[in-house]
């Protein structure tokens, strides 16, 4: 067999062995294109402020129409790709790169420039200590219905630390049952547990804050755990997949009390005195200068009761003798 024939046959065998996508599922390239327009539509709706929810629905429907797909096909594709973590990570990284570049061309301020925590590192008094995924997709089923994390405290944690779990959420479609639950637990020494919950609906930015109260601020923290749960509805209409992105866990050390500065005490010396050193004899001139002298200040005061001519009485004038 000739070598030129081997390569085409080998390529055909590889293509035949490659797993094909289920019917109605978008491939990676198409899914990336749709998600790019989906994110831009969300951003334009939020930028308008008023009627953001109505505009968001209109823009997303326009995205489906542009790519000639149905909302059901998009939902099914999200469920399929979110179940394949590595492939979905590649898709989402490409989406974020293209969204940022497209936003700059359209004159939309990038998300990183709007986020005051975007440039934080894992070190310092205020730090981003998040070690989990930057994004995930939660789907209302038994396998993908929850995203959770657990983090143990290390030597960089201090008593009284404050925390903010910050992330963005987007439901990839409209449903009456679009509601997820976020929970954050803090485990302190002495079996003390503090929990914070929040309902995730249509707000694009979500924050769960924990500022320890008096008593807790003196305890050492052992670990932190949290989860995002999208429950399945008992009705016919199920919640849409929830896309969670830009996750951060901000840790802020407790502010140290300001210690007042110690006042600097300086010695003062009288102006008209000359210190006498022990064992020395003053000269007559020094003796005269060391005596206190009376200082006189000439003050000119205005007469508080000046004599003025009374009104109605003419001044006296010299009269000529007739």
Provide structural commentary:
The protein has 2 domains: 93 residues; 136 residues, Jelly Rolls. The longest helix has 22 residues. The strands form 2 sheets. Strands 1, 2, 4, 7 and 9 form a 5-stranded antiparallel sheet that branches. The chain has 7 helices and 9 strands; from the N terminus they run H-H-H-H-H-H-E-E-E-E-E-E-E-E-E-H. It is of the alpha+beta class and 322 residues long. About 4% of the residues have low confidence.
Strand content: 15-25%
Low-confidence segments, ≥5 residues, pLDDT <50? 10-16, 268-274
Number of separate helices: 7
Query: Which architecture of the largest domain does the CATH hierarchy give at level 2?
Result: Sandwich
The run of helices and strands is HHHHHHEEEEEEEEEH
Overall average residue pLDDT = 77
Q: Which class best fits the helix and strand makeup?
A: alpha+beta
How far from one another are the termini?
163 Å
List keywords for this structure.
322 residues; Jelly Rolls; four-stranded antiparallel beta sheet; 21% strand; alpha+beta; five-stranded antiparallel beta sheet
Outline:
The protein has 322 residues and is α+β, with helices and mostly antiparallel strands.
Give the SSE layout.
Layout: H1 3-17, H2 28-48, H3 52-67, H4 71-82, H5 85-106, H6 111-114, E1 126-128, E2 135-138, E3 146-152, E4 162-171, E5 180-188, E6 192-200, E7 205-210, E8 221-229, E9 242-252, H7 284-290
Antiparallel strand pairs: 1-9, 2-9, 3-8, 4-7, 4-9, 5-6, 5-8
Helix pairs in contact: 2-3, 2-5
């Amino acid at each position: 067999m000739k070598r030129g024939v081997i390569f085409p046959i080998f390529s055909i065998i590889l293509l035949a062995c490659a797993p094909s996508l289920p019917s109605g599922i978008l491939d990676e390239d198409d899914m990336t294109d749709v998600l790019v327009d989906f994110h831009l539509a969300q951003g334009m709706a939020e930028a308008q402020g008023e009627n953001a929810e109505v505009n968001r629905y209109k823009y997303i429907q326009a995205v489906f129409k542009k790519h000639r797909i149905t909302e059901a096909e998009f939902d099914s594709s999200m469920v399929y790709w979110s179940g394949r973590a590595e492939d979905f990570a590649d898709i989402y990284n490409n989406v974020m790169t293209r969204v940022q570049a497209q936003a700059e061309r359209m004159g939309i301020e990038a998300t990183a420039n709007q986020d005051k925590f975007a440039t934080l590192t894992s070190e310092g008094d205020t730090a981003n200590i998040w070690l989990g995924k930057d994004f995930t997709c939660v789907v209302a089923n038994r396998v993908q219905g929850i995203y959770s994390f657990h983090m143990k405290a290390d030597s960089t944690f201090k008593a009284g630390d404050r925390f903010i779990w910050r992330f963005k959420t987007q439901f990839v479609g409209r449903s009456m049952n679009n509601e997820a639950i976020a929970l954050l637990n803090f485990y302190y020494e002495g079996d003390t547990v503090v929990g914070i919950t929040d309902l995730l609906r249509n707000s694009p930015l979500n924050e769960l804050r924990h500022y320890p109260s008096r008593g807790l601020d003196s305890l050492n923290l052992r670990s932190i755990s949290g989860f995002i749960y999208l429950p399945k509805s008992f009705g016919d209409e199920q919640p849409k997949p929830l896309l969670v992105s830009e996750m951060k866990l901000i840790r802020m050390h407790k502010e140290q009390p300001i210690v007042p500065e110690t006042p600097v005490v300086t010695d003062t010396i009288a102006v008209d005195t000359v210190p006498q050193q022990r064992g020395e004899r003053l000269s007559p001139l020094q003796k005269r200068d060391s005596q206190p002298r009376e200082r006189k200040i000439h003050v000119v005061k205005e007469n508080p009761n000046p004599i003025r001519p009374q009104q109605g009485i003419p001044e006296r004038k010299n009269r000529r003798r007739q």
